[in-house]
Amino acid sequence: MATTKKDPVVVVLQMTGANDYLNTIIPYTNGHYRDARPKVGIPEDQVLPINGELAFNPQMGPIKKLYDEGKVAIIHGIGYENSPRSHFRSMDIWHTCEPDIVGTEGWAGRVIRDLDPNSENVLKGVNFGQGLPRALALRGVPVTSVSSLESYGVLSSVPGVAAEAERAQILDRFARMYAPAIGTGEVMDYLGQTGRDALQGADIIRSAPERYSSTIEYAETPIAKYLRDIAQVYLADLGTQMFYTQHGSFDSHFNQPPMHTKLWIDMSSAISDFFDDLKEHDAGDNLIMVLFTEFGRRVKDNGTGTDHGAGGAAFVIGNNVKGGMYSEYPSLRPEDLQQGDLAPNYDFRGFYSTIIERWLGLDPVPIVGGKFEQMDFV
Q1: What are phi and psi of 179, to 5 degrees?
Q2: CATH T-level fold of 9-150+218-368
Q3: How confident is the model at residue 178 (pLDDT cuts 50, 70, 90)?
């Protein structure tokens, strides 16, 4: 658990589309890596070495700096057995912790429910981006989803819809749009309540930018804007403990080198600015950032990119993270690969369990669906 008096906070950054593990944490002295990647392999003289075997991608300088300060944990070989190598199915598994059935309840939604069992704070969980990730979806758990903090809350300030009765009427119309296909009753009630929670959240959250001041100049990129928005809401002390956002697509089948380079330039810069912002406000001790992707990519390149794989890497960043490397980098020897992919050697549910129990102070078993090996990164 966090050692500060403030409530512990988690920022989840989803690398949508399957980030290439091998070109993120690079086994730069491994002959199998060089043999498998004649087209997309990163030259040894460009990498940012961690030790004599592994190195950061050359665009990850800002994250390496945090790593050298002891603030980044790298979790190797993360995943689960029998990866379907499907974006949609794999994301569902990561979002619901249900590898054997199609789950409907998001793990982060369960966390929010346990943090706020009476749903007293509609901002306990906040998503920045379009739509609502399944990880956050759970019936009866309010989650505020924001596409742009600058324009959020506009509905509640438009003349003519400020009155509560008129807002309710708009939301009832919204709910009825779905009723013919799904049915009335509980579903309609759920949609209506979700909309009301969103409007209540809008009224509160739109005050965050007005209370925010910083000398940090974030880049004009989507991920930088989302992380700046998260910083604004976090620094406004609105009681949010679960933030969620995503970046990508990392689906690098074609033209991978420039594509992957741009993704990590944008993300490394944004993450660095975010933590600099928290440092400027002396406000980072009770927050960790978690980076994950649905699976890694194939060991052998396809000529211009890489296809869907299995084992990948996750990261945890924060002042109170016990930095370093956890689990083992999977073997690249051809005889050890699974269908040409790195074999996962650490179950992602243990990763979640560590965060849930050791950082948030909750019981992870009902959230992830069992007991799994935890790590010591927090």
Answers
A1: -60, -45
A2: Alkaline Phosphatase, subunit A (3.40.720)
A3: very low
